[in-house]
């Protein structure tokens, strides 16, 4: 049976429309950018609101990490199974000779968490170190003559947030503080989920972040979701974040709901006693 870790762990308030999406790619930064843009396209396809909170490009034109708030109808219901490790297999476009062209394999991580409006994370200003610096573009050059970029360090946890999205230092500070609150909220939720996971398995994607859930094989032009054995061709179209991705997500939701229903009946419905 598929491991839907965390499916029923969250209480009803976690079905709130607003969702936090994180993408992280220390090595596969081009792929990280493609995946982030895929979810941005999917939000547009579903007519959701996609608000970028943080976008940290890498020096080679890819994406190191990013975060976004997504809101709309049934956002968390659709995206909660996207959390986990996404693997890419392809030949890098680096102009290497044919004998040097080998398929490279790498991974990036997606984290999806609900964001209930009523949950407020209070941050003591005394626990913060706030620095300002000049914003930089993808190539490392300064793009602003003023110290508009903001870096916030949460001293008790060591969490560091940088924001250079806006030309306004005040706006960047507000965004960085909000992102810090989201990070602290994420830690709180993960602790809660971790405590409950030992008693029950459920949502795929929150406590199963290290598990490989999907492979994007560019050489074979195929996307494979390993949890349900689902395969789809045409990676380019899949990464547009429209119909092909929606078909896969709909299948994941369907399978998870069927298995949750089956598990419910197995645990709550006792067989009728045999006639004596």
Tell me about this structure.
There is one protein chain. The chain has 276 residues and is of the alpha+beta class. Helix content is 29%, strand content 26%. It is built from five helices and eleven strands, in the order βαββαβββββαβββαα. The strands form two sheets. It has an eight-stranded mixed beta sheet with strand order 2-3-1-5-4-9-10-11, sandwiched between helices. A hairpin with a 4-residue loop joins strand 9 (212-217) and strand 10. Residues 3-14 and 196-209 have low confidence and may be disordered.
Q: Kindly, what is the distance between the CA atoms of the first and last residues, rounded to a whole number of angstroms?
A: 35 Å
- Sheet-strand content, in percent, reads 25-35%
Q: What's the number of helices?
A: 5
Helical content (DSSP H or I, runs of 4+): 25-40%
Largest sheet: 8 strands, mixed
What is the spatial order of strands in the main beta sheet?
Answer: 2-3-1-5-4-9-10-11
Number of strands: 11
Q: What pattern of helices and strands is seen along the backbone?
A: EHEEHEEEEEHEEEHH
Radius of gyration: 21 Å
User: Would you identify the regions where 5 or more consecutive residues have pLDDT less than 50?
Assistant: 3-14, 196-209
| Whole-number mean pLDDT | 79
Q: Please tell me what the overall shape is.
A: globular
Structural class: alpha+beta
């Amino acid at each position: 049976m598929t491991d839907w870790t965390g499916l029923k762990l969250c209480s009803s308030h976690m079905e709130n429309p607003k969702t936090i999406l994180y993408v992280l790619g220390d090595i596969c930064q081009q792929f990280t950018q493609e995946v982030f843009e895929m979810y941005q396209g999917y939000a547009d396809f579903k007519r959701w609101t996609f608000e970028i909170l943080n976008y940290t490009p890498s020096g080679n034109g890819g994406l190191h990490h990013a975060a976004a708030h997504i809101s709309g109808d049934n956002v968390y219901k659709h995206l909660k199974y996207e959390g986990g490790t996404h693997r890419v297999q392809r030949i890098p476009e680096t102009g290497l000779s044919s004998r040097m062209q080998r398929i490279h394999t790498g991974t990036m991580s997606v984290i999806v968490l609900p964001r209930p409006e009523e949950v407020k994370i209070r941050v003591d200003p005394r626990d913060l170190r706030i620095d300002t610096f000049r914003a930089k573009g993808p190539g490392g050059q300064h793009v602003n003559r003023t110290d508009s970029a903001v870096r916030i360090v949460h001293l008790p946890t060591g969490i560091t947030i940088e924001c250079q999205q806006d030309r306004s230092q005040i706006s960047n500070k507000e965004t960085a503080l909000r992102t810090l609150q989201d990070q602290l909220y994420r830690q709180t939720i993960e602790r809660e989920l971790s405590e409950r996971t030992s008693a029950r398995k459920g949502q795929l994607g929150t406590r199963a972040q290290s598990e490989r859930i999907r492979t994007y094989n560019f050489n074979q032009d195929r996307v494979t979701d390993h949890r349900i054995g689902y395969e789809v061709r045409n990676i380019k179209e899949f990464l547009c974040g429209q119909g092909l991705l929606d078909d896969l997500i709909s299948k994941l939701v369907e399978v998870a709901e069927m298995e949750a229903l089956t598990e419910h009946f197995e645990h709550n419905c006792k067989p009728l006693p045999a006639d004596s």
